[in-house]
Amino acid sequence: MRISLRTDGGLATFPGLTRPVEVDSSSLGADEAARLEHLVGAARFFARPEPAAGPAPGTADAMTYTLTVDDGTRTRTLTVSDPLEDDDLAALISHLRAL
Amino acid sequence: MTDHSMPSMPSMHSIHCILPPHMLEHIARTGDDTQRERALQALATDNTQRSRRITRSFTTVAPAMPVTTPHKQRHVHDLNHGTNLPGTLVRSEGQAATGDAEVDEAYDGAGATFDMFWAAYSRNSIDNAGMPLISSAHYSTQYNNAFWNGAQMTYGDGDGVYFNRFTASVDVIGHEMTHGITAYQANLEYHDQPGALNESISDVFGSLVKQFSRSTKQTAAQADWLIGQGLFTSKVNGVALRSMKAPGTAYDDQHLGKDPQPAHMNNFVHTTSDNGGVHINSGIPNHAFYLLATALGGYAWEKAGRIWYVTLCDPRLAPTARFQDFANLTVANAATLFGPAVQQATIDAWAAVGISSSLQPPKISGQWALHYDWGVTGRFNQVPITFNADGTFTGGGNGQWQQKDGTLMLHWNTGPAIYSGSLDGDIGSGAMTTFAGSDGSWYLYRQGNVGLVPPTLEEETTQHLDAMGNPVTVGAGAAGAAGAAG
Ligand SMILES: [Zn+2]
User: Fold this and answer.
1) B85 near A CB under 8 A
2) Domain boundaries, chain A
3) Scanning every residue of chain A, which has its alpha carbon at the shortest distance from the alpha carbon of B258?
């Protein structure tokens, strides 16, 4: 499973942080790979309805997250913004950001 | 309108109502003896009284401020690392500190922001109607950000490696809350130049909150003009998120990169990320504000901040406003609020960041006094004249006006005469236009330093005065007069 996370926006723009986070679970240890796959599964990444594009009107300084997951048979890209309303998706994003 | 005093000459009253100079000349010079005598007598009646009344009508255009009691009502919630706003309420207005630094800083910072806007601009909370101030702390995990979601403020803890908690800097709290105020006023669109203006306005007032809330208030010269000073850990080579004093110099770090903010239009950054660089190009208007505030000296919220605040609340500021539009309005409002010297300083501040706000005078608008004589020694008069945005004028007669290249032309509906004169000085602070011809002279003036106020306010207080200085209703009488006199 390959995952990429690109983060845009926020209170300040840091050029050094614009690079996407990219992970290939095959390069992770078994525990780490299992944890990542569990987070993707818990977030029902491939089953989620298409979210609204961009932050809600009136929002300022929110971050926008573009997530792409390729599980070997399917590829999907989702774009979501703060405030994240789904705890499972938020957990996946937090995990990726901390990698 | 009462005509009892002159039952035999209904048109005379109408003359008093409208009084275009060329008609006056015409009647005073070519009317029969009775008309001439009545015209001169009536028009010269009690000019002192009339003048005073006109003066009053110009100096009472400011709207009466409603008596307001500030309503500071803070609520801070704890998300406990979740992301579903607002989380658990942990501190409400008047309650003791919780001991959770992020919660307590969110509480104190919202209070400091409320206090600055109330003390400096009589603004009663985000909506100017006492709206509760809602904040949430501990958003998500290791979250390096703070945001406004359209209804409340939200803060992250930071990752602890490069960033501390985002409540650590009071100007960041002021920044977020100002986004709410902007949404209630100009509602600037959050992309490209309007978005960068939106961002800059949050930085400006965020910084003013910091300067105001110090135990010893800071002058423009004493302030550091940094946004987010204290958010970086010692691991970062940088002092803050942004610098209004020197955009582009706030950090230069191996991990974070280099502060990308420009300070001048020559370095405007074209990008599709960050909603078109809203947090990047905000450096340009940020620096203009810094330059003005330091040029004017003293407490920045008093003059520069007031100009920005009045502009933010100015109905002429469109949601799609670009830097140029905002600059032009600050220049106009600077004159209205503080006169020509501060206006020039405002023009200079924008010019220094590459935005040349036109030195051409703004279009004349609203209510003025038209003073004229008609070539008879000692005879003069003055009437209110209102310049409407659609190119018509009313009050001292009806007609069309045109302003081009510093020249004002007036064309009364009642005849072919066109009066033109050059506009001298600054319209906002009381320009005068003069015309001197063989048949007399006229000029326009505003009393003192009143300056322009929004036309909608003026229309409510427009008073038409008859020869005795009594208010009259303009309508059928004026129209009849135009016919009778023409
Ligand atoms: Zn912002």
Assistant:
1) yes
2) 2-98
3) A15
Give B339's DSSP letter.
Answer: -
Active-site residue list of B: 176, 279
- What is the token pair recorded at B399? 């007609």
Taking only the tens place, the pLDDT of each residue in B80-121 is 999 999 999 999 999 999 999 999 999 999 999 999 999 999
Q: How far is the CA of B43 from the centre of ligand 1 (A)?
A: 59
Name which residue leads in pLDDT, B51 or B258: B258
Instruction: Note the pTM of the prediction, 2 decimals.
Output: 0.71
Note which residues in 297-336 of chain B have CB less than 8 A from chain A.
Answer: none
Angle at B82 between CA B81 and CA B85, to 5 degrees: 120
Are B402 and B52 a contacting pair, CB within 8 Å?
Answer: no
Inter-chain contact A11–B172, Cβ cutoff 8 Å? yes
Give the domains, in start order, of chain B with CATH numbers.
Answer: 16-57+65-289 (3.10.170.10), 366-485 (2.40.128.10)
DSSP string, A8-28: EESSS--GGG-SPEEEEGGGS
- Looking up tokens 């004028």 gives B393
Identity of the residue numbered B146: A
Q: Provide the shortest C-alpha distance from residue B250 to chain A (in Å).
A: 11
Is B140 in contact with A12 (Cβ distance < 8 A)?
Answer: no
**Maximum distance among all alpha carbons in chain B?**
95
> How near does any CA of chain A get to the CA of B79, in Å?
12
Q: Could you report the predicted ipTM of this complex, rounded to two decimals?
A: 0.95
Measure CB to CB from residue A13 to each of B85, B147, B260 and give the nearest one.
B260
- The residue of B144, B253, B281 whose CB has the most chain A CBs within 10 angstroms, and thus the best one to mutate to test that interface, is B144
Tell if the CB–CB gap between A90 and B83 is shorter than 8 Å: yes
- Residue B58, pLDDT > 70, answer no
CB pairs below 8 Å between A and B: how many? Answer: 108
Q: Can you tell me the mean pLDDT for B298-314?
A: 97
Task: Write out the two tokens for B337.
Answer: 């609020």
Most confident region among B74-83, B372-381, B428-437 by mean pLDDT:
B74-83
Angstroms from A89 CA to nearest CA on chain B = 10
Of the candidates B83, B86, B326, B62, which has an alpha carbon nearest to the alpha carbon of residue B186?
Answer: B326
B183 in Cβ contact with B190 (< 8 Å): no
pLDDT in tens, chain A (99 residues): 999 999 999 999 899 988 899 999 999 999 999 999 999 999 999 999 998 877 888 999 999 999 999 999 999 999 999 999 888 999 999 999 888
Give the confidence band of B34 by pLDDT, cuts at 50, 70, 90: low
